[in-house]
Task: structure prediction
Amino acid sequence: MAKELRIGMIGYGFMGRAHSNAYKRLNDFFDVKHTPVLKVACARKPDELQAFADRWGYERTETDWRKVVEADDVDLIDICVPNNLHRDIAIRAAEAGKMICCEKPLAVNVAEAEEMTRAVEKSGVPNMVWYNYRRVPAIALAKQIVDEGRIGRPFHYRATYLQDWTINEKVPQGGAALWRLDINAAGSGVTGDLLAHSIDSAMWLNGPITRVVARTETFVKEREHIDTGKVEPVGIDDACMFLAEFANGSIGTFESTRYARGRKNYNTFELNGVDGSVFFDLEDPENLSFFEYTQQQSGEKTEDHLTGWRKIHASNPEHPYMDKYWVPGTTIGYEHTFLNALADFVAGVENGTSSQPDFHNALQTQKVCDAVIDSANTGNWMETKVEI
Result:
């Protein structure tokens, strides 16, 4: 008989919807022993919260997250609120012995992320941070290619994450929808929101980042704040570019902006090594581009007239996660990345392993984010203090 996994959802926005969908569909696709039960949804606006709960099937609602954390009929706390609220909820949930799944980035800064990590490690509760792009089948395939040694010694890593939704200077900051533009709620701009994904993917594929030098820019210096109705200074970074050094000797470039007209969610990476390269574009998510430097019978690596990039449609059952879904040639979507992440987390709960990235792993990404912001503020190279 399946065991219930009783969910307390804190937040009802974009990520609350994405996570709720994963809980509802988990047992439709994955053979795990637990069945998610949507027990309680929590947020500060009762009317909007009730509409969310009714749509997704939560049994009840609550406006005080402390009551959800302390509820006897909740096993897992899912944190889907602005970044400045992560710390208190996570620490209280850990002290209450609840499993925790937290949206990224882990916190607004390293100090808070360290507190959260100490709390979950002290309590021993299963925990995960929703860096869902690791669970795109094509990205997971890139990880396999790297782990199989097909790239060889790495030389270059380059990442871009481009959007265009804040170009209009009349877009306000703050509130439930636009808290990402409020420094007090978000902690940073594109660095924590977008580049955190790029950094997580980079260190998963290519190992620790040890040193960075960065430049940030805020193009619109003042915006109306929804909560006060006043025009206030904008404290977040609209754009960020940084150079990185990896522990394995390779070098990297990272760029992110919300001012790239025409780019909606353009998230790419490329890794170049002595034996091959991989390239991925999230706006073409089912495909992974792979270049393999050919090897002759003599064992000498050289090119011939058939050497070139190949596009791999990551939809065959031998590709990561795809044996759970459809026939080869068909695709899965953005929402399935959360489903895949949840399946890995629940499987880890059942077999006693830690699903990655957990809080400790996400803390390493937070260290890079903080180093990037510090470098942009000082103009100097900064050590990341990431564990190697």
Observations:
- Residues 94 and 120 are 5 Å apart (CA to CA).
- Residues 359-378 form the longest helix (20 residues).
- The longest strand covers residues 34-42.
